[in-house]
Automatic annotation (TrEMBL):
<feature type="compositionally biased region" description="Basic residues">
    <location>
        <begin position="102"/>
        <end position="115"/>
    </location>
</feature>
<dbReference type="GO" id="GO:0000786">
    <property type="term" value="C:nucleosome"/>
</dbReference>
<protein>
    <submittedName>
        <fullName>H15 domain-containing protein</fullName>
    </submittedName>
</protein>
<dbReference type="InterPro" id="IPR036390">
    <property type="entry name" value="WH_DNA-bd_sf"/>
</dbReference>
<feature type="compositionally biased region" description="Basic residues">
    <location>
        <begin position="84"/>
        <end position="93"/>
    </location>
</feature>
<dbReference type="Pfam" id="PF00538">
    <property type="entry name" value="Linker_histone"/>
</dbReference>
<dbReference type="InterPro" id="IPR005818">
    <property type="entry name" value="Histone_H1/H5_H15"/>
</dbReference>
<dbReference type="InterPro" id="IPR036388">
    <property type="entry name" value="WH-like_DNA-bd_sf"/>
</dbReference>
<dbReference type="GO" id="GO:0003677">
    <property type="term" value="F:DNA binding"/>
</dbReference>
<feature type="region of interest" description="Disordered">
    <location>
        <begin position="84"/>
        <end position="115"/>
    </location>
</feature>
<dbReference type="GO" id="GO:0006334">
    <property type="term" value="P:nucleosome assembly"/>
</dbReference>
<feature type="domain" description="H15">
    <location>
        <begin position="1"/>
        <end position="70"/>
    </location>
</feature>
Length: 115
């Protein structure tokens, strides 16, 4: 039920526990058993976090915002790819500069060793 709620309520960043509870109460027509459903949603979120199904994006414990784990990994992989490309380009530039600077210093060291 919680996974379905997170899929249906897929927002840009995450979905709060209150929004998940509200959706479950509306979708499954639980009536006056909201407290019992709240406990079940909390337990499902805790278990989902430990199993890696859900990811907590903000807050502590169950009082926070959540996302499905596969949605966040896609976003993280895209961001990592961009960061890796930028850092590789910077490393290549640094290595090129180091090689040119290193060759000048190595010639000076050789001449001082002969003298």
């Amino acid at each position: 039920m919680v996974q379905r709620a997170l899929r249906q309520l897929s927002e840009k960043t995450s979905t709060s526990k209150f929004a998940i509870l509200k959706f479950v109460c509306w979708k499954y027509n639980v009536g006056p058993r909201v407290r019992k459903i709240n406990e079940q949603v909390c337990n499902a979120l805790k278990k989902g976090i430990t199993d890696g199904i859900f990811v907590r994006t903000s807050g502590r414990g169950v009082e926070g915002s959540f996302r499905l784990a596969n949605q966040t990994t896609k976003i993280v992989k895209k961001n990592r790819a961009k960061i890796v490309k930028k850092t590789r380009a910077k490393m290549v530039k640094k290595q090129a500069v180091a090689k040119t600077n290193g060759s000048k210093h190595s010639k000076n060291k050789k001449t001082s060793a002969k003298a």
